[in-house]
Specification:
3-stranded antiparallel beta sheet; elongated; disordered C terminus; single chain; Tetrahydropterin Synthase, Chain A; 11 helices; alpha+beta
Length: 394
């Protein structure tokens, strides 16, 4: 119980919450309660027996006659702060050096770019090389570092007052995506600075939007075609303005509200009438297309029938031509047959010596058996006449 009086917060912090201690930590430390704990922990008690340099001893908090702050605090049960000026100066120097050392460190996160700016000397200004993602050591007294976030950021512009070409008041809502190009950040910093959105982008957006809406008629904006034209025109103008400064921008025109309600109603009636006219026009085009389709079908049927008639006519013509050619071939065949028969007859006549003899033979063939003896006698007479050289009389 006596030890508890000398423990920090008497061993229990009022703001401590045991529920944040994991089960693993509890199990691991259970066996170490009342000790220094596992690991490289140790407790060493030393006693100063002799002081050789009192000034140095006071820096370490060791006073003569063993009356150091720690010992007196232990005996009195309360903390005695050191009042040694050297101790205070040493502590202050330590923290100054610590802060100075930490000031050397510059950490560039992903999506950022750093600029090194020389603050002292005749050549002070922005160094040409930028700082990429990572940790960099920069001397803090001679140099300063400006860090820019180059990632795309969203900006909302609501209820921007403007007017149309025909003088109707409107309110415009738009969204802007704005980012930086790493290599052009030095130019942006030198010409504008960190507050580039409020100094350049926002005023330019408002003025460009107002100048653009005055070029569009109300009905064109209301039907939608004018909105697209406004968005494209504003975006092109803003890119021409911001890209040379190292910015990349995208414009999205969200809403355009007409403030004159009666004018809006008139625009709606006009839009309805135009829509009705458009519907009638499309219906008329559909009727014309249907008529053309029917006409094309009729023309196709007509051409089909014409081709069928022409095919039938050609078939008849070819059939007649075929019959004529067949008859011609038949006639040629008969003529050849007749010629062959005539040639055969001529050869037979030549074989018999004269036409009279051939006629007699043919007569005998036609007479049949009755004329066989006569024919034989006649033939014998001819043979005798041809081979024996003397006449043979019947």
């Amino acid at each position: 119980m006596e030890d508890i009086q000398y423990l920090e917060e008497k061993g229990c912090l009022e703001y401590a919450d045991p529920s944040y201690v994991s089960e693993k930590a509890i199990q691991r430390g259970m066996s170490q309660v009342g000790s220094l704990g596992a690991g490289n922990h140790f407790l060493e008690i030393q006693k100063v027996s002799e002081i050789f340099d009192e000034d140095a001893a006071k820096v370490y908090g060791i006073e003569p006659a063993n009356a150091d702050d720690a010992y007196r605090s232990f005996k009195a049960g309360k903390i005695f702060p050191s009042i040694n000026p050297r101790t205070i100066a040493g502590t202050a120097l330590f923290f100054i050096l610590l802060i100075y050392g930490m000031a050397w460190i510059t950490d560039i996160e992903p999506g950022e770019v750093g600029l090194t700016i020389k603050k002292i000397g005749s050549d002070k200004g922005i160094l040409p090389e930028t700082l990429d993602t990572g940790m960099h050591m920069i001397e803090p007294f001679m140099y300063d570092v400006a860090v820019y976030d180059t990632r795309l950021k969203q900006y909302q512009l609501d209820d921007i007052p403007a007017s149309t070409k025909d003088g109707q008041p409107i309110l415009v809502d738009m969204s802007v995506e704005l980012g930086l190009v790493d290599k052009n950040v030095p130019t942006l910093h030198e010409n504008i600075g960190r507050d580039y959105y409020n100094q350049v982008v926002y005023p330019a957006l408002r003025s460009t939007l107002r100048n653009t809406t005055t070029q569009e008629l109300s009905d064109e904006i209301y039907t939608g075609d004018g909105r697209i034209s406004i968005q494209n025109t504003v975006q092109k103008a803003m890119r021409d303005r911001t890209e040379p400064l190292g910015m990349r921008i995208t414009i999205n025109l969200r809403e355009i509200t007409f403030q004159n309600q009666q004018f809006v109603e008139a625009l709606e009636e006009k839009a309805k009438a135009q829509q009705k006219v458009e519907i009638e026009r499309r219906n008329a085009e559909a009727a014309v297309n249907t008529a053309k389709k029917v006409e094309n079908i009729a023309e196709g049927e007509k051409q089909k029938r014409i081709k069928a008639a022409e095919a039938q006519k050609e078939e008849i013509r070819l059939k007649g031509l075929g019959e004529r050619l067949a008859k011609e071939q038949e006639a040629k065949g008969n003529l050849a047959l007749y010629r062959a028969e005539a040639e055969g007859t001529r050869l037979q006549v030549n074989a018999f010596g004269s036409g009279a003899t051939y006629a007699s033979v043919k007569w005998a063939e036609n007479m049949g058996p009755k004329a066989l003896s006569i024919s034989a006698l006649f033939i014998s007479s001819i043979i005798s006449h041809l081979f024996m050289g003397f006449p043979c009389s019947l």
